[in-house]
Amino acid sequence: METLKNTLFEAIELFLRVVENNQFVEGHEVLEDEWKRLKTLPEHENEAKILKGLINASTALALASKGKKEGAMRVWQTYEKYAPLIMSTQTEHTPSYKEAQRLLQRKYTLYM
User: Fold this and answer.
1) Model confidence pLDDT, tens digit, residues 47-77
2) Of 15, 37, 69, 82, which residue is 20 to 30 A from 76 by alpha carbon distance?
């Protein structure tokens, strides 16, 4: 389980870096493997949903940056569906999830 924690921490940190640099497609890619892994583990169901939300937020920003605002808004709604889990799910990754949430909101105001 230690490897899972380290890998997830690294994926979230990389997500923060690429999204900060407006590399939104890459933001999706760096979390996808961890999301796929966590969604198979019942004890990590909420974290899998948080990652799904972050992936969708990054995808929405990618669409918006290409001028596809309508599609971006639809995808952003999936992020909004899961975003409350960031506050209600307490794990060692919660501070990073909160940081990702702040970053995504900032990018939302720029692109959406």
Assistant:
1) 999 999 999 999 999 999 999 999 999 999 9
2) 37
How far apart are the C-alpha atoms of 58 and 108, rounded to whole Å?
10
Residue 81 is part of a domain; what is its CATH number?
Answer: 1.10.3450
Burial zone of 104 (CB within 10 Å; 0-12 exposed, 13-18 middle, 19+ buried): buried
Q: How many domains does the chain have?
A: 1
pTM: predicted TM-score of the whole model, two decimal places = 0.93
H or E stretch covering 25 = helix 24-38
Entry field: residues in the chain: 112
Tokens (6 digits) for 62: 């990618």
Q: What is the mean pLDDT of the chain?
A: 94
- The distance from CA 65 to its chain's CA centroid, rounded to whole angstroms, is 17
